[in-house]
Amino acid sequence: MIFSSEVAEDLKNGAVAVIPTDTVYGIVCSVRLPDVVEKLYTLRGRDHHKPCIILLSDISGLEEFGIAVSTSDGALLHTVWPGKVSVVFDCPKEQWLYLHRGTKTLAFRVPDDRELRNLLHNIGPLIAPSANTAGSLPAHTLAEAKNYFGDQISLYVDGGYCESLPSTVARLKNGVWEVLRKGAVTL
Questions:
Q1: I need a surface site. Which of 29, 56, 151, 183 has the fewest CB within 10 A?
Q2: What is the per-residue pLDDT for 33?
Q3: Among residues 163, 159, 132, 162, which one has the least CA distance to residue 148?
Q4: How far apart are CA 97 and CA 159, in angstroms?
């Protein structure tokens, strides 16, 4: 088991970590801690106006963000989740401004890794951009991630080589997929 109880506790208590996902390594923190989200943006050098992908344990996690999915769209989501597709939804709630960065949209993904989903079930959603500095290639190994962040990150979890492309990013509206970024899955 690569996600120990210590990893879960550290993330709940405000750690920024580098962990393997079902695609590439991600730099992650709890979505419920706005100050830690800002720290992650600064560490990564991410554009402060650009939202990040949020990892959920399952489709019911959308409810926390006030996102209701129609029965037909839910059926389509179940064809790609768990999986390597990040789906963009409208999320205009002011409460989530620090996540949607004024775009009033958020992208969510249910990863196709049971152990990661168990971690998410226990600690809640994680903001999870790829583990690299802005403009650099995503890390596929822990060594690559450490080259980007060094001792600025205190928690690294080694999951071996992550061989996937980053997730496909798409919008789902009224039963229609609109691909926003090509990635690991063709829709």
A1: 151
A2: 98
A3: 132
A4: 32
Residue 176 CB contacts under 8 Å (≥ 6 apart), including other chains: none
Predicted TM-score of the model (pTM):
0.97
SS (H, E, C) the chain: CCCCHHHHHHHHCCCCEEEECCCCEEEEEECCCHHHHHHHHHHHCCCCCCCCEEECCCHHHHHHHCCCCCHHHHHHHHHHCCCCEEEEEECCCHHHHHHHCCCCEEEEECCCCHHHHHHHHHHCCEECCECCCCCCCCCCCHHHHHHHHHHHCCEECCCCCCCCCCCEEEEEECCEEEEEECCCCCC
User: Could you tell me the fold of the domain covering 5-181?
Assistant: DHBP synthase (3.90.870)
What is the distance between the alpha carbons of residues 104 and 93, in angstroms, rounded to a whole number?
7
Residue 36 has, within 13 A of its CA and on its CB side, a CA count of: 19
Residue 173: per-residue pLDDT: 84
β-pair partners for 3:
none
Q: For 123-168, how does the pLDDT look when each residue is reduced to its tens digit (9 = 90+)? A: 999 999 999 999 999 999 999 999 999 999 989 999 999 999 999 9
Amino acid code (one letter) for 51: P
